[in-house]
Design goal:
Shape: globular
Distance between the termini: 13 Å
Largest sheet: 9 strands, mixed
Radius of gyration: 26 Å
Length: 504
């Protein structure tokens, strides 16, 4: 087996690893009743990484999340890798679609007994018993100094540091404008001792936080890993980590445990609002010891629609035709479905890709005193105000291609080329980040649904019974206004813990 990229983000104390401003959600689970799922809240905080394991190469899509109150100069990331990687701009829309399509959801079917005669189910206790079981170029100097290979990918300056010492690496980072944390030094030394090189990333000098995008890294190996040892420097307690695998079969942790949460601990009446708490206590349970994952979904990748992040109409080359002026560019973007600026129907322009607005701001900036809606809906009306010095048809076409078209094509190939998606989740605290989790495919394991329904039956004497998806029943003496019980501490948070059997 070959263990390769160790994904971690570090260094800048102002940055908590990861891409995109994190949007908080009330819970990881969705909410719906017996009419079917409704809009599901999707938590994009923490670390989200999409993997594909090939025959001799791993592809990792890294979502970069950021604190919107932090300046662009404060961003820097350090990623340990064991082989020289390739880089590409990633797709934020792929992350959105993957998160939405696989989000775990809890719901309740509701029904009532037919009350043609008196029925007495008895029972005075609020909770009854249960039955059933849940199943670049080089500037290397040699010696104690690292060899440095530098490139620019999208909005990021990237350097791969090979060799050297902790001091020389920290010195190079500081000299070249990469934010760093002195607390990283002993962890960097540990990785150096294991033969790793480092990828250092920062925003380019002319880039703004609005241009931040995911990064795709490809590297030799067959066993992906999330390098959380560096992450612990700036991590919060119970930090969220989600990993996604597009493969032809299910993926499982190798050196971390796999746990099944106890469904009796889920607040079914509130659609799993306590889901994160349940997962946190389950992975912290005895024998899981804070180093464990829960599988939230394992099944067909068709739950992620390619239309959410790809369009065959997107084309950057066509913009090379607008050499003298960008007049007509907005119309072409509208035809491609990337923008909508109609003053009769829109209060503002709608940008249908997160990177389009910063691209327009660079090449076709809105004049002072004019709204974006008025300007972009009629460039010819403001022909005299167009900044022709900012316009570069070839560069604009290349930017659309690099940041919108190519990432969409890569995402489409990933999803359509792999029939199976596995989504795993954990929460982990800095004191538990002592080992980097690695993963492996095990196609013999069963699917795991992300939509889970219980059934509540209200009886004729106003009691109720809730049947969980695994067949266990919970009885409620007050069936008209039931509250999910707070089971005693003796009731375990975890149903099962597996460490070795799943990865075989």
């Amino acid at each position: 087996m070959t263990r390769s990229l160790r994904l971690a983000t570090v260094v800048a104390a102002a940055s908590l690893v990861s891409l995109v401003a994190a949007s908080e959600a009330s819970a990881c689970g969705g909410t719906f009743c017996d009419t079917g799922p409704t809009a599901m809240p999707v938590d994009q905080s923490g670390e989200n990484i999409i993997f594909h394991i090939g025959p001799d190469q791993v592809e990792a899509h890294i979502q970069i999340q950021y604190d919107p109150d932090t300046t662009a100069e404060a961003f820097a990331w350090l990623i340990p890798v064991s082989a020289m990687p390739e880089f590409e701009v990633g797709s934020q829309l792929l992350f959105d679609a993957t998160l939405n399509g696989s989000v775990p959801s809890y719901g309740m079917f509701q029904q009532s007994d037919s009350c043609g005669q008196d029925v007495n189910l008895g029972g005075e206790d609020d909770v009854g018993g249960t039955t059933g079981q849940e199943d670049a170029g080089s500037t290397g100097t040699g010696g104690e100094q690292p060899n440095v290979y530098q490139t620019t990918v999208g909005a990021f300056d990237i350097a791969v540091l090979d060799g050297g010492t902790v001091d020389s690496i920290m010195q190079w980072l500081g000299d070249n404008g990469y934010q760093q944390d002195p607390n990283a030094a002993p962890i960097i030394e540990q990785y150096l001792g294991e033969g790793f090189m480092f990828v250092a990333m920062k925003l380019s000098n002319d880039a703004d936080i609005g241009e931040i995008h995911p990064i795709v890294i490809r590297y030799g190996g067959t066993e992906p890993c999330v390098p959380i040892r560096l992450t612990r420097i700036a991590a919060l307690e119970d930090m969220d980590i989600r990993v996604f695998f597009y493969q032809d079969g299910r993926t499982v942790p190798v050196n971390y445990r796999h746990v099944l949460v106890n469904p009796l601990k889920i607040d079914w009446f509130n659609f799993g609002a306590n889901y994160k708490e349940v997962v946190t206590l389950a992975v912290d349970a005895e024998s899981a010891d804070g180093n464990a994952f829960v599988t939230e979904y394992a099944g067909p990748s068709l739950v992620v629609p390619t239309i959410a992040f790809y369009s065959g109409a997107w084309n950057g080359d066509v913009f090379t035709n607008y050499v003298d002026s960008p007049e007509g560019v907005i119309e072409e973007l509208t035809t491609q479905g990337l923008i909508s600026c109609d003053p009769f129907f829109d209060a503002d322009c709608s940008y249908n890709h997160p990177l389009l607005q910063p691209i327009l701001a660079e090449f076709i900036p809105v004049p002072a005193g004019v709204t974006a809606l008025d300007f972009y809906s009629c460039l010819s009306c403001y022909a005299a105000d167009i900044d022709l010095l900012a316009w570069d048809a070839a560069a604009f076409a290349a930017r659309i291609d690099e940041r919108i078209v190519v990432p969409a094509n890569t995402a489409k190939a990933l999803v359509e080329g792999n029939t199976y998606l596995t989504r795993m989740y954990t929460t982990i605290s800095p004191g538990e980040m002592n080992e980097d989790p690695i993963f492996r495919i095990n196609s013999t394991l069963p699917d795991v649904p992300n939509v889970r329904f219980a059934t509540q039956t209200t009886h004729c004497n106003d009691t109720a019974t809730v049947v969980l998806p695994d067949g266990r029943e919970v009885f409620f003496a007050n069936g008209l206004n039931p509250v999910w019980p707070d089971f005693p501490d003796e009731m375990p948070w975890v149903e099962d813990v597996d460490q070795e059997g799943m990865a075989e």
